[in-house]
Amino acid sequence: MSKSVKTLIAILIFFAAIFAAGNGYFYAKTVSLENTMNNKDDSAITKTKTTDTVSASITTTTPVKTTDTTTVATSSTDSRPSSPSDTVVVGQGETLFAIGQKAGVSWTQIADANGIDADKIKVDQTLIIPKNNQIGFTVNKDMAASLQKDVDAGKYLFRLTAVDTAKADSPSAYGITSTDTFAQASIDETAGSATVTAKKGDKIYLITLIQPSTKGAKGIWAIESIKSN
C-alpha cells in the first residue's frame, strides 16, 4: 500500500471519529433537553396542584356563630309574683270619668295606666288605678315562694333576670308590651333591688323590682312599681 493511500485512510478515520463524537454529543444534548422540559412540565403540574390546594384552603370559610337571643313571652297574670295594688271593676253604666272621681284620680291617668281608649271600657273589666303617675304592686309571698322553688328546680329561669321579669310581668300596664325596648338602669343584689326602663315610642317608664324570697344571683325578681315619666 502506497504512502498516499495510507494517509487518505487515516484522514477518513479521523473525520469518521469526529462525526461519531458529534452525533453522541447531539444525542446527549437532546436527551438532556427533553429531560429538562419534562422536569419543567412536572414542576408546573406540581405548582399548579399546590396552588389549587392553597386556593381551596383560602376559599373554604367557617360558619360564623351568632349569639342566640331569647324572646321572653308575656306571662299570665295569675302566674306573676306581684300584681297592681289598686284596681276597680267596671260596673253597669259606669264611665271612666265617674270611676276617676270615685278614686280621686284623673280619668286620663287611668286610661294611660291601662293603655286603653277611654270610650271603650266594658262591664266587669278590671282597671288599674295609678297614684301620682305610678302603679304600685303588691307581692304575693306564697306565689313568690312557690316560684322560687320552681326556679331552684330549673324552671322559669327568666325570673332570675330583672330585665326579663320586667318584660314578662309589666304588660299591659301603661300599654307596655314585651316587644318594647327594655334596659337595666341599676341593680343591687345584696339589697335585692333593681330598676329597669321600658321605652315605648317617645315615652319611658321606670320599673322597680325586688327579690322577695332569695337575695343575690339565685333569687327571682318581682315588680314593685311602674312609674310614668
Automatic annotation (TrEMBL):
Residues 65-86 are annotated as: Disordered. Coiled coil: none annotated. Keywords: Hydrolase. SUPFAM superfamilies: LysM domain. Residues 86-129 form the LysM domain. PROSITE patterns: LYSM. It comes from the Bacteria. One of its GO terms (molecular function) is hydrolase activity. It holds the Pfam family LysM. This is Cell wall hydrolase, SleB. The lineage of its organism: Bacteria, Candidatus Berkelbacteria.
